[in-house]
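Suppose you are handed a protein chain with no further information: no name, no annotation, nothing but its sequence. What can you learn? This example shows the usual starting point.
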Amino acid sequence: MSFIQKLFGAILPQRLSQAMEAESRAWRVECSCGFTRSVWELGGIRYKASGEPRWMMVCPQCGQRSAHRVYHKP
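A reasonable first move is to predict its three-dimensional structure. Written in structure tokens, the prediction is:
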């Protein structure tokens, strides 16, 4: 867990913290090569969010720096 995840987990009630983690795990970050992982695995939080932004990052599979698509997978 990242520092921000631990901080929000300590501040928020357990029920809300668990809901935040579950929703963050449902948000996926996908590279153009097809490699995907959850926002929570990356150390981030995406709770009650909308839209499909793109995040610039390096893919651990292909090694390329590109705009990764962020989307919600229920």
